Structure formats: structure tokens, C-alpha cells
Amino acid sequence: MKIILKYPFVAFLFITFAVFGALQCTQSHQPLQDDLSEVKKDLFITNTDFLNRTNELMKMVSGDPEQAVLQSKFEELRISYKKMEWAVEYFLPQTARFINGPALPEIEMQEHTEIEPEGLQVLEEMLYPYDPANKAEVIRMLKNLTNKSNTIKTNFQAITISRDQVFDALRQEVFRISSLGIAGFDTPVSGTSLKEIPYALGAVQKALQKIATEKSQENALAKINTAIKASRAYLKKNTNKNTFDYIQFIPEHLNTITSLMIDFQKQEEIPAVEVTSALNKNVRTFYSKNAFNPNAFVPGKQFEMSPEKVKLGKQLFNDNILSDNNSRSCATCHVAEKAFTDGREKSMSLTDSPLQRNTPSLSYSAFQHGQFWDMRKDDLEGQSSAVITNKEEMHGDLSKIIAKINTNPEYRMAFRNIYKGKNAEIWQLQNVLASYIRSLASFSSDFDDYMRGNKKAMTESQKNGFNLFMGKAQCAICHFLPLFNGTVPPNYTKTEQEVLGIAENSSNRTADKDPGRGKFHETVAFLQHSFKTPTLRNIAKTAPYMHNGGYKTLMEVMEFYNIGGGKGLGLKADNQTLSDAPLNLSEKEMNEIIDFLNALNDH
User: Fold this and answer.
1) The whole model's pTM is what?
2) CATH topology of domain 460-598
């Protein structure tokens, strides 16, 4: 199958959801009355509707249909999925991936192989516009959907779901809407996401009613019903993604619903599902203080953060003891005032010569699966040791460094107090450095303040910029709210990379030759020249930009995106994941987006 790369982002799974789904379905929870509960009955009815609409569309394609009719029926098919998305995504995540996942190959990293994309987003690319020459391929994709519908039916007949799981799944769905849904993550070509959200919210409302008792009927549930009704009414009147008022809708509607759901949970006395997650279980909105849990990204329980680890890690981060000749520290290249970058085009070696890439920011790097631009290390522990031992960066020897630390009474005592061992060990050094880096996420920007209720925190220009960011400019399809990076909400178990078709710098049209992640997967064509999607928080402090530092200002970056990336420049970038369609942003609009990005600076 030939993939038409209109999709403006790339989402390769290097962690599957299958284990999580199995865990969710086998743990001991509060069971519903039986496997034929009202919640399940509704799911079976909705799935049957999804199957019938799939077969109807298949029959229509077999004939000689008009494009407009096909698209209308396809939109109805998508809506039928949205009505059960909350359950399929939560209990059958791998099935969900192949029903409504990105229209891009899934990569099996260990085997260095690609898995063909399928599902609704692949169909969207084939139907907008529709070419009758692709009829057989459209039918094949629809047949795959019928198989997935049968999988949904079989699995929900077999598994036992529980009240706390249902609530957790519904809560995750509203957060999914508040990030992926509102940005149009899964409708990049048709742009119909705002039309679909009312149905997803309606399904949440209906399922909450099924698990509610008299405890919340007159209080939290009633308020949720009112909030969802108001949200759906607003959405049905405002369906144009380019003119939608995101900056008003998100805090006034979606944040209200997620907050009320915590009241519902408390009134109904529903316990939290005991699974470690990036989004803390008791937070009211994406923008609550301490909404995110960095410990969800550590390699094991013994690596979890503590104030003592952070304090010691900060001290060592700023100590030249970590380099071979005691000439530089981590802070040499990661300057706090520059959001832990160095302000240079390229990182500098120990001998003061430029290295291959720009120094990435450490701010919010805790919330990523994959460190460095090429994601070659899974976590911050691995990242810190790779830098320390790199011959050109710090040229340190971890065994010698630990020996020096153990001869330092202050450091030795600090490690002993934290880890209870006689001497410091290498993994402990890695852990305290990583713990400090995990603390570099304060969520203290004007944007956060605005989302928490301070309507004076952002200017009108910044508000306009946010609406453009979400809509016309399509930035939020890759930089997901509220972390503004490529770690996909609401589960946060995978981080994306993209191929943008970067030039060597903003002033020429020569393709950058850095293979990026492709260096480690040479047989996977789709990963060549791919790089991690970084956070945009504090972006105004981290110039120059891109992995090669070739773009000096945010305006140069905006101009690059505005023309359609590398392909828009005329570069050969066959596997570019960024849409090559021009955004048609005016200079005023680009300046407003940049103004918004300044609202992401922490204080």
C-alpha cells in the first residue's frame, strides 16, 4: 500500500499498550453486577452499529458512489466509533491502535520492521479526496475494520469490567478530548474533529449515568450533565477548526468537566485504579498544580524522585567532578537561564569545536520516552551516563568518578543517607542527576496561570496565537497539550518522532544529512532523518532551533512550517511526516503564534 503523507505528525509505538490493557482487565476491582451490565449492553449496541456502518460503506464503495456521499457516510462511521472510543482505548488499546491510529507504519523497534497502518485514518486519506482507482484498497481497509469490530465483541464478552475501571476510562476519555480530540489529532485531513466531540462527550455522560447511584444524582452528576450539555451545544454551533475559540472553550468547558468528575468520584466513593500513571489520579484538570507524576517515567521504583535526590543531583549537575579533567560540568552546556540549553548553534566539545547537534533543553525532558534528539536512550539515567562518558562532551569514567565521590565526605554521606549503602554506586549517581532533571518542570507560565482561571494572564495577541496554534497552524497535532511535546496523552506511554525535511539552515535549500533515529534502524526507511518532538515550553529561551541549530529565530521556524517543511522548500523528503501543504499564515498570524509561545515561559 502506498501511504499518502498528508498526516502532520508521526506516532510510532516503541511501547505497546497490550500489557497495560491486560493488567487493567485482570486486576481485582469492584465488579459490576454481571457481564451483561448496562454499560456492556450499550457497548455491544454501539459496536453493532459500527459494524453495520462499516458494511454499508463497503457496499457503497463497491458501486459507483459520489465522493460527497462517501465522505458523509464515513463521518457517520467515525462518529459511531467515537461513541465507544472511551472503552476500546482503555480496555483494548492495541485494537484501538488499528481502528483509529495514525495513518503511518507502526515500527517494531527490536525487529527493525514496519507494520502496515490501517483503520479510520488510513481511510480518511483515501476518501479526502476519493479516487475510484483505490476502490479495492478501501474495501480491504473496511474489511479489516469488520475484523476489529468482531474483536471488540469477543473481548467484551470475555472480560469482566468494574466500576472503578469504567470511571477511570471515562475520565481518560475527557482528557483525550481535551488534548488529541480538540486538536484534531485523528482527523488531520477532513478536519471534522469538532463535529465528533459532542458524540464522545455524550457517550461519557451516558456511561456515567449507568454507574451512578443516588449519592451523586442531585449533585455532581447533575452538574456534569449540565456542563456536557453546554459543551455539546457550543460545539454544534462552532464546527470550523480555523475559527473555533479554543482559548475560551478549554478552560470554561473541558476543564470544568474533568474537575466535576473528581467530585463525582468522591461522592460515589469510587477508588482510584491502582496503576502508576503520568497524570495523577486526583487532579482536576490538565493544568492543576502537580498534575503530572515524573515517577511514571522512571525505570523502576528504586529510581523514584525525592527532595534529597533532587538536591544532591543539582549539586553534582553543577560540579566539574563529572568530567575527565574537572574542566566542565553538566551546567556548562545546560544553562538554567536559557531553559537548560547553551544558546549556541551546536554543542561544543571539550576542545571547543562544534559537535553535530544543537544542545536540547532539559526543561520538561522528564516527560519523554527517549532522550537525545535521536531518542537513543530510554530514560534520563541512561542519558546522563552517555553524556558523562562521551569522549567529546565530558570524557568521564564513571568508575573513577564514583571513586572520587566516595573520597569526598560530604558526597559520600549524602549518598549513604539516601540509598542506605556504605558507598555511592554508579546507578545512584545516574539516578540523582536524573532526579534533578526531572524536577525542571514548574508549570508556572502565563498560559498555565490563564488555564487556572486568571483571565488577565495572557494578552489578546497571545490568545489569538493559541487559537491559531490549535487550529489553522495545526501545531497541537504534534505538540500535544498540555506538555506541548510529542508524548501522547492521556496514557503517556509513547513519545513521537517526526521527519520535517530540515535544511542545513534557514538561509539555504540543502537537505540536512543527519539520519537522526534512522542511524540505529538503518533498514527502516521511514525512520531516516526522524527526530524527537521536543516540548515548546520555554521555547522562547532556547534559540537557535531544530536539531541542527540552523534556525536562529522563531520566525524562521514559523516560515519553514508555513511553506510545508522540506518538501515546501523543494527538498527531496519522501518520508516527510509533516504535511507539505502550505499553512497560508499571514505575517501577523505568525507573530501572534510566536507571542503565544512566549506565554509558555516559566517564571
Assistant:
1) 0.92
2) Cytochrome Bc1 Complex; Chain D, domain 2 (1.10.760)
